[in-house]
Each structure stands twice: as C-alpha cells, then as structure tokens.
Amino acid sequence: MKFFKNYVLPFLVLFVVMLVDGHLSNLLTNLFPNNIHLLSHLLLIFILYISINLSENTNFIMLLLIGLLYDAYYFHVIGISTLLLPLAGIVISKYNSVLMSNRVSRFLTVAILVFFFEVATFALANVTHLAQMSFADFVVYTIAPTMVSNLLFFLLLQPILEKIYL
User: Fold this and answer.
1) What is the mean pLDDT of the chain?
2) How far is CA 56 from each of CA 41, 89, 113, rounded to the nearest angstrom?
3) What protein family does this chain belong to (predicted)?
4) pLDDT tens, residue by residue, 136-148
C-alpha cells in the first residue's frame, strides 16, 4: 500500500492532470479569438504540491516519464517537456522549504514556473522549427493571457491542494 501511495498514485494524478491540461488548453483556445492562445498549466501547479512528499530521485524519474508522455502526446517530438519538467522538479525539490512556506510564495512560484516553462518552450520550439512566431506576438497573445489564466486557476485550486498536500 505504501508503494501505491508514494509512487503509483502521484504518477497517476500527474498523468490525469496532464490529459486534462491539454483538453482545457484546447477549450480555452477555442473560446477566444484566433490570435489569443490561453494555455493551461495545471500540471505545473500539481507538480509543485506533489513534489512535497517525494524524494528528489523519485521526483526526477516521475517527471522524466511525465515529460516523455507529454512530449509524445502533445508535441510528437521528444525533448521539450522531457527536459523542462525534470528541471522544474529539481528546482522545486531543492528549494521546497522556501517555495512552500506561505501562500504568497506559492503564488509567486506558480507565476515563475509558468513564465519560465512558456518562455523555454517557445525558445526550444523556435530553435527546432516547431513554431514560427515573433517574441512580441508571443508575449502579447500567449504568455500574458496564459499567466493570468493560470494564476486564476491556482487561486481557485490552492485551498483544495493545501488540504490534500499540506
């Protein structure tokens, strides 16, 4: 039972959140005009909370697997999330006591995670020619709406996640 609770359940939660994340992003993108791209990053929010109870090695391996699945499912090219999710997990694990100390620091952590994940994804997608967009358009039409929507998601989910994980 301990193995299931410590390893299988967090992986299943992250996997389901990853799938919901993609569908929510698709829904949000279709609700707004063509040039505005709202992307959901519930996965990053859940990673922040799930990483509390996992060791650094477990966290790294789990996020590496989730990154592989994320890349295969959404990008059809292995590399972007396979690199970024474990890196985010390492930073979260290393500075967990500071990042999770209070609500304001958790809010700012989510803002930073979403920002860096989006900018790194944009940079890697442009380098690998998966996307063609100017940085100015990216900031206005993607990152700004994505930041606002994800911070609202975080504010809505924070009380529930605190009861479960803290």
Assistant:
1) 91
2) 22, 8, 18
3) Belongs to the MreD family.
4) 999 999 999 999 9
